[in-house]
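W.,

You were right to be curious about this one. When I first looked at the sequence I had no strong expectations either way, so I just let the prediction run and decided to look at it fresh. Below is the sequence, 155 residues in total, followed by the output.
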Amino acid sequence: MRRDDTIFQPRDPGYAERVRASFELQQAMTLVGAELAVVEPGYTEIHLPFKPAITQQHGYIHGGIVGMIADSAAGYAANTLTAADASVLTVEYKINLLAPAEGERLVARGEVVRPGRTLIITKADVFAIRDEKWTLCAVMQQTIMVMHARKERTD
């Protein structure tokens, strides 16, 4: 699904397992019921099933939750390209909510736009899926900081 040029090659052969283990540490993702469904070099997908507990007053999935899965999908896309002893942290993101997050599930597709040693630029598209019709409901651009030689906490 991703490009095959060399700038999108992982620096860590065990990137997929490392990224999945990191996702498991995110209690916020567990809280909302999100799943890291796809992990490829420079690309990830987070799937989120609808549940009433994450909706706002109109019955749509809350925009804060949409931003949350977009942030994580793009951040983990960046993390696929870092060294084994590095971790990542969001510096900033800008999101546009384009349509209500209304459907049976959401899919956030995170992708690296430009990798760098210290900063990685990413983007995410979030789709609301109803009756297998995909509606783009949000787009996000993000800056990620690579924290070299700083692993995540495991407690």
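Here's what jumped out at me. The helical segments are 15-25, 27-32, 63-79. And, maybe more interesting for your project: The CA atoms of residues 119 and 145 lie 5 Å apart.

Coffee later to discuss?

I.
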